[in-house]
Amino acid sequence: MISLKPDQIQPVAQNTNTNDGKIRDAKTREDSSRREFLKGSAAALALAPGMTLFAYGEAGAKPAAQAVTNKSRWGLLIDAAKFSDADVDACVKACQDENGWRDNGRPLTDAQWIRRVNLKNKKTEEKFSLPMMCQHCAEPPCVDVCPTGASFKRKDGIVLVDKHICIGCRYCMMACPYKARSFVHEHVEDQKEHAPRGIGTVESCTMCVHLVDEGKQPACVKAAPRGGMVFGDLNDKSSKLAQLIKSVATQQVRADLNLDPGVRYRNI
Amino acid sequence: MKIVLIMQRLILTLLGVSFVGVSLLAFTGQASAQPAWMPKPPKAIGGQCDLDPKIMRKTHMNLLDHKRDQTMHDGIRTKKFSLKNCIACHAVKDESNKFVTIKDERHFCRSCHDYVAVRMDCFDCHASRPGDAMNKAAKAAGNPHDKSAGVSSMGKAGDTTVVTLRKFIAGEAK
User: Which residue, of A104, A166, B14, B24, is most buried by count of CB atoms within 10 Å of its CB?
Assistant: First the structure.
């Protein structure tokens, strides 16, 4: 029996300003309402020039003016066997650099979008670690309990906090079985312009939604060892992710809770 | 007794009229020489915003509010009315050629908000100056409001959205 015991992550170096936020294509695209898009999505996709389609299951950029739909459901597959402790820490560092949160050496109150969980099989004493973050559940308990509607699930399955309406009650933190959320206790300055965060609100992994909307991969996926993390569309059966979870044994953490997390693990 | 009352009212009316006159003079005179106490918002890097400043002054908070919900919940990331884009264009540099944050009273938003004593909490969470990458990219892509550069995302000549919005704000369309 494996016991899940969250451990402190190693303090990592301070934030460096190396991420390259990219300005979006400045060309105006045709404003197509969501309804029009749904009516003739195939035609709309064919008409928009210079677009990468989702046809091969790779993340493609949607037109900036287009609202997200439930056609996609973004997910992750994490292969624990490919992660050393240092690999997990590299993912944590990549998330910090991308989203501008940092370890202030105050573990009780520091933000934690992604963390290293150390595991030990009590019988065999086998030890390993894995990255743990918001599991982007299909049935997120954090959304169920939120009194203001700030905790919400986007149509494409990404679970977010709308900090504009978050009152900082932290009910979602209590409800999350993965301990994925944290509360901003301290005044924050010099935030990343694509990742607003401030005192008095709850935050968690956004699956790098700003990058996903541009057709890019989340920061942790890029930092993970080759094949350690696969990002993709769970709904697109031709995607690399869907093909992988079809062909190898994967599991959801606490699958017994029936939350249907979008993040799956291998070799745990 | 009655005459006194009438006289009082007359004096008050005259005072009122003269006050309005003086204020009007002050405001018409402002076009040529602005009084020192008036707010002086710094000019945007990209020149004048495509929506009429009069409309922007009155409705920017609503436009930003609307856009924020679209971006947050629907992932719509067009540049029009995006706070990130407004900040990039309205950035102000200090003596050391660095963009000032909201802590500096020369910041575009503060230049007016200080004057009207309206506290905004946007920058409790949002970055109040353009990031380095954003700054470089903005320079490379040109000015988002410059129509001549052909890269304007805000109200190109054929952009019906802005025209419709303008009409709506002006009460011409429903």
Answer: A166
